[in-house]
């Protein structure tokens, strides 16, 4: 899976959160509303073509309108991103990753995570 730029990630997040195919013009509105960023339609279109080339989404033109839908799910992307962070920043050590995150995780969440770890099937 090819890496995404920050703006490409923001665009994909808007598309995933929309929950269905998103009208092209809605993407600009979502970026402005969520991130306070305003982009020209031509810029957004350029990024959509890049994301289509990277096989993250598909642009479907119907008459004068274009609709965008994801090919890669957010869950798939998160998994890939987490593996990349684990490998590149923590040398594959989940312990090091959890240690780095431990200060940011609220106590109630830590207890829930202990349960998740206990429920994992280890071979």
Automatic annotation (TrEMBL):
<protein>
    <submittedName>
        <fullName>BlaI/MecI/CopY family transcriptional regulator</fullName>
    </submittedName>
</protein>
<dbReference type="InterPro" id="IPR036388">
    <property type="entry name" value="WH-like_DNA-bd_sf"/>
</dbReference>
<dbReference type="Pfam" id="PF03965">
    <property type="entry name" value="Penicillinase_R"/>
</dbReference>
<comment type="similarity">
    <text>Belongs to the BlaI transcriptional regulatory family.</text>
</comment>
<keyword id="KW-0238">DNA-binding</keyword>
<dbReference type="InterPro" id="IPR005650">
    <property type="entry name" value="BlaI_family"/>
</dbReference>
<keyword id="KW-0804">Transcription</keyword>
<dbReference type="GO" id="GO:0045892">
    <property type="term" value="P:negative regulation of DNA-templated transcription"/>
</dbReference>
<keyword id="KW-0805">Transcription regulation</keyword>
<dbReference type="InterPro" id="IPR036390">
    <property type="entry name" value="WH_DNA-bd_sf"/>
</dbReference>
<dbReference type="GO" id="GO:0003677">
    <property type="term" value="F:DNA binding"/>
</dbReference>
